[in-house]
Specification:
Layout: E1 4-7, H1 13-24, E2 33-35, E3 48-55, E4 58-59, H2 64-70, E5 80-89, E6 108-113, E7 120-123, E8 128-130, E9 136-139, E10 145-147, E11 155-163
Antiparallel strand pairs: 1-9, 2-3, 3-4, 3-5, 5-11, 6-9, 6-11, 7-8, 7-10
Length: about 160
């Protein structure tokens, strides 16, 4: 069994609603960037959208302030390595994306779900963690893991954290 921890209702309701309002509103200004391959492999035909907030000790987005204000203070970490948002569009059939590691060196990872849908995160041993709004999954993201699309919502949106 993989070593992981789930924290439901990770943020207080008012903070969670603020995060949803910033990143999920239909008329919002938040920019998403098209990525042709979920796994980064040439034979992967599934696409998704992402937004990099922080990587390699550098803030890459003005939107990082919301993450820094609402989420990071609640995480037990010494140092942030990377933080990004993922948006997986709805598919007619559930797609399981290829297993991967975020980095080869040992570190911690977390996936924070912004919406509830039938998508999930798959851990190395096959454990499936459902996407539930305001849920934080903590795990070792230097171990194999994967994600899925969803079929019951117009998108699956989460934040991905790598940290020490």
């Amino acid at each position: 069994m993989s070593d992981y921890k789930i924290v439901d209702n990770f943020l207080p309701t008012e903070d969670f609603k603020a995060i949803q309002n910033i990143f999920l509103t239909k008329d919002g200004e938040f920019p998403w960037y098209f990525i042709e391959s979920v796994s980064g492999l040439s034979d992967d035909t599934d696409c998704y959208f992402e937004h990099h907030f922080y990587d390699m000790c550098t803030v890459h987005s003005n939107w990082f302030e919301a993450i820094k204000t609402f989420i990071l203070p609640r995480m037990d970490m010494m140092s942030l390595i990377r933080c990004k948002a993922n948006l997986f569009p709805q598919t007619k059939e559930l797609h399981r994306y290829k297993m991967h590691t975020d980095q080869d060196t040992p570190h911690k990872g977390a996936v924070y779900s912004l919406n509830t849908c039938n998508g999930f995160t798959v851990l190395e041993d096959g454990t499936e963690i459902k996407s539930v709004a305001n849920r934080m999954l903590f795990f070792d993201s230097s171990e194999l893991h994967g994600s899925t699309s969803c079929t019951d919502a117009n998108r699956r949106v989460n934040f991905n954290f790598n940290f020490l």
